[in-house]
Amino acid sequence: SEAEFDRHLADPAHRVLVVDGPGGPVGYALVLHGAHDEGPEALRGAPSADLSKLYVDPDHHGGGVARALLDAVRADAAGLPVWLGVNADNARAKRFYAKSGFVTAGVREFTVGGTTFVDDVLVLDGGLDDDNGAVLVTQLLTLAADSDDDIALWIHSPGGSVPAMLAIRDVMRL
Prior knowledge:
The chain has helices spanning 2-10, 65-77, 91-99, 130-146, 162-172, and strands at residues 14-21, 24-35, 47-56, 82-87, 103-112, 115-123. It is α+β, with helices and mostly antiparallel strands. It has a 6-stranded mixed beta sheet, with helices on both faces. Strand 5 and strand 6 (115-123) form a beta hairpin. Helix 4 packs parallel to helix 5 (162-172).
């Protein structure tokens, strides 16, 4: 609702990020900064960025709008862990987030009007493990195949898998 957007716009810990097209907005992301009582268990009560909404007009799917919004969310998070809930049955969104480096960190259930829904809880920032290391290696190889430009990579990780880090290093040397 308009009142809900006004509330988010007035809150200094909330960000409404918008991609404009020729005829007006074509997508937006809503990011809630702060310590949250829900989300990935390891992040509860700690500062993080909850990607509450990411919406792209269906006429603009596949045009880079979601990628631009997600890049803006990452920049806005300024090193804070980013997490979100995505409907467990939304395979398209889950593929997009997996390609973007998100990994599943759990599930959450919620009830609306007597119907229970299940969200997968995904997190972007966390320890480097073999699974998200493999996602990153795949992304690097895809980027390298798509462009001759140099790729800059900064990993902010509290630790993790040595084999995954070595694989990333090896790909960066190609």
